[in-house]
Amino acid sequence: MYSFEPTDEQKIIIEAARKLAAKEFRTRMRDADEDGKPDPEWMRSGWELGLLPASIPEEYGGYGERSALTWALAAEELAWGDLSAALALSAPNLVAIPILLCGTADQKKEMLPHFCGESYVYGSAALMEPRMDFDPNSLKTTAVKKNGKYILSGVKCNVPFAAESDWILAYAFFEGKCEGFLVSKGAKGFIVKEREQNMGMKAFPLYSVELRDCEIPSSQRLGGEAGCDFGLILNCSRVALSTMAVGVARAAYEFALDYAKNRKAFGEMIAQRQSIAFTLADMITEIEAARMLVWEAAWRLDEKKNADREAYAAMNFAADMSLMVADRAVQILGGYGFIRDFPVELWLRNARGFGVMEGIAIA
Amino acid sequence: MISFENSQRIEQQRRYAESIARDLIRPNARYYDDHEHEFPWDFANLIWNTARKSIDSLGPDAALFDERYMLQFHINEMISWGDIGYYLCLPWPALGGIFIQVVGTEKQKERLREKFKSDRPTWVCMALTESHCGSDASAIRTRAVRDGDSWVLNGEKLFVTTAKMSLIESDGTLVVWATIDPAAGSRGIRAFIVEAKTPGVKITKLEKKLGLRASETAVVILEDCRIPLENMLGGESSTGFKGAMATFDAARPAAAAAGLGVARAVVEFVKEQLALNGIKIRYGVPRNLLTSIERDIVDMEAQLRATWLLVVKTAWLIDQKKPSTVESSMCKAKAGDVVTKIAQKGIELMGSLGYSRKLLLEKWMRDVKVIDLFEGTGQINRLVVARRILGYSSRELK
Q1: Which residues of B touch A284 (CB under 8 A)?
Q2: Cβ within 8 Å, pair A293-B302
């Protein structure tokens, strides 16, 4: 039977995430964006939510079972607070979740406790490549097996916390398939280059990285000899980004609605004009529609059903939706939408990223 | 707990409806488009004599099923996938009957149940719109005047679906909205039950339409139409519109569901044709690398699914007896946009073949436009959503 009621436990998590997002994320959003770095308080206070440890079973140091849906519900709230904050807080997922889903028993035992401690630890994944025809299913970065080791070569872009993370999951093509390789900090041939300069997500440090004949022990191939289910990882990434797109759109919508109810023109509030009121109605409708796609895709992941189409649809739809909603919010604010004293331009810059940034978050 | 798993019972009944839609409805869709004002009796008889025993939402006891609207919307979608005109030909309580089931007196409900025990298909139609007003229903002029132990009705009603089937071809019912006090605006409006063959009610015209031609749309005239006092819907204490609003809330997602059935037919047909022409859709590939056709298909499917899920969520809310006014209007407004665009796009993707009456695409485009018009136009539904999200009254947001 269909149901749209979150569990009591999920409601508690949503509420906690919402409070945190309002108190710690939203308030520090503008300064962090201008400074180009995440506020340390985001990770400190955010880690107290325990989202990742709650996704990891007890035998690996955590205290729960992973649910992409529960995580998506929380992440919508986090991204509503601030996208960079939500991405920074969830960066450890980039290593932990693929290991949880596809790792060997040894990889889980060795790596997962690392992400169940008292405090936040950085994590990262290197998927994107700097070319206009980038396709996550067809990477130019390659892995070659040689003397019991894998040799990785290629160029990656938009690698979160590449300079800060102890472990980075680098994706490369091996025998015609996309596989993951765990690269440790300082590995020879893993060269962190400049900080990316993007239009949005500016408080979330992303780097350009070169893999120059980077040697990886065979035990560090995700899933060992059997490899990983990259399609599944990609779906988890798409669900993560699409739920965040919903959160960003909701932030922009709520702000625009509030503004329109308080801005007078020609003797009445601008929200009393149908052109503004109908725009707001369309915005909330599209947000809700996208949310349904996200929930369905996340639910399918939890049910271990194939979610290829659903996650793809959710991401495409939510990316378009988020951009449209943020753009309309700027339009409703008029000139105030364009200046940095108001948050709406930031949401527009952030929203543009969803359709083009893959693999920087995992649900 | 959030779940996207449909109930087995609904899934089974939907599949049964699918067999009817595929084998009986779709093959005749073109015929009734070409022969407007003919009626698909074989379909009505099949539903009446056989199918409604298996599809709970069509039977007289639909109201007893706790996922009633979820089931009904799935059936609407499926029948409309076959042909949306057929959906409106269904012999079942329909909107007027649902009003009786929800706000009627015990006696009115009982009389409706009796009618649906007949061995011949029976219809219930509803008349609200008039020549000078549609969405602004509070402006209706049809008068109900009390005269002794009767109400006397006078007025003209437009766009009455299945009026002929309800009043002439069966011993059915008309639910008609009229004002008992023109000075009172919407507060003066009540609904009345007019039984078939009541003197003073007649059909003066069957409309010729852009699409939806299997479905009859009539002009109904009431001339000194005298009905018993007890035929005021809900009895003497009836609150008119107020008590009926929840039923209108269910009519909007119902219409959206029907439109989405047509849109699904379009997408499926176009994809089959693309496949026959060796064109494969590469799902999962970044959108900047897709061809224009791939992108259209991927977007159409996402829009279709998202809108359908809005309908499903609304059904869930109504079945749970939770307020659904916003969601009902949201899914209807969105469906109006989505289904018209998908149908228009379907023709574009097929080129001139899509424009030809040899295929159904052009018919689907004509048919589905109605989804953005009836049960409140797209604009009216946006107005409903906007007032709710802004907390504005109808005076504050006109």
Answers
A1: 330, 385, 389
A2: yes
Q: Which residues pair with B152 in a beta bridge?
A: B145, B226
Q: How far is A300 from chain B (nearest CA, A)?
A: 8
Q: What is the CATH number of the domain that holds A327?
A: 1.20.140.10
Mutate to test the interface with A, among B6, B65, B304, B309 (most CBs of A within 10 A): B309
pLDDT number for residue B237: 77
Q: How many domains does chain A fold into?
A: 3
Same fold, B122-231 and B241-390: no
Same domain, A222 and A240: no
Region A201-227: mean pLDDT is 98
Given a cut of 80, whether residue B63 has pLDDT beyond it is: no
- Give this prediction's pTM: 0.96
Among candidate residues A177, A197, A226, the one where a domain is terminated = A226
Could A312 and B4 be called an inter-chain contact, meaning their C-beta atoms sit closer than 8 Å? Answer: no
Nearest CA to CA, how far is B25 from chain A (Å)?
28
The predicted structure's pLDDT at residue B242: 66
- CATH number, domain containing residue A101: 1.10.540.10
Bridge partners, residue A289, by sequence: none
CA distance B187 to B139: 11
Half-sphere exposure at residue B328, Cβ-oriented, CA atoms within 13 angstroms: 26
- Chain B residues lying within 8 Å of A74, measured CB to CB: none
The reply to whether A256 and A346 lie within a common domain is yes
Q: Is B140 on the interface with A (CB under 8 A)?
A: no
Tokens representing residue A141 in the block: 């970065």
* Domain region containing A216: 124-226
B387 CB neighbours in chain A (<8 A) are 277
Q: Of chain B residues 265-294, which have a CB less than 8 A from chain A?
A: 283-289
Mean pLDDT of the region B117-121: 94
Note the residue count of chain B: 398
User: What does pLDDT average to over chain B?
Assistant: 95
Residues A31, A84 share a domain? yes
3-state secondary structure of A36: coil
pLDDT for position B137:
83
**B240 pLDDT higher than 70:** no
Q: Is B277 exposed, middle or buried (0-12, 13-18, 19+ CB in 10 A)?
A: exposed
DSSP string, B125-141: EEE--BTTBSS-GGG--
For residue A139, the tally of other CB atoms under 10 A from its CB is: 22
Q: What is the CATH number of domain B241-390?
A: 1.20.140.10
| Over residues B36-47, mean pLDDT | 97
Instruction: Give the three-state DSSP class for B84.
Output: helix
Q: Strand, helix or coil at B9?
A: helix
Query: Which residues of chain A does B318 touch, with a Cβ-Cβ cutoff of 8 Å?
Result: none
Is residue A236 located within the same domain as residue A222? no
Tokens of A345: 């331009």
State the sign of the Cα–Cα–Cα–Cα dihedral A54, A57, A59, A60: negative
Give residue B241's pLDDT.
66
Check B289 against A312: CB less than 8 A apart.
no
Give the model's pLDDT for residue B101. 85
Which of A154, A241, A233, A220 is CA-nearest to residue A190?
A: A154
Q: Which of A355, A323, A357, A335 is nearest to A252 (CA)?
A: A323
3-state secondary structure of A328: helix
* Spatial distance between the Cα atoms of A135 and B289, rounded to a whole number of angstroms: 8
Per-residue model confidence (pLDDT) at position B108? 95
Q: State the CATH class of domain B122-231.
A: mainly beta
What whole-number distance in Å separates Cα of residue A86 and Cα of residue A100?
A: 21
Q: Quick one: closest CA in B to A269, which residue?
A: B396
Active site (catalytic) residues of B: 375
CB–CB of A2 and B334 under 8 A? no
pLDDT level of residue B246 (50, 70, 90 thresholds) = confident
Across the interface, whether the CB atoms of A296 and B309 are under 8 A apart is answered yes
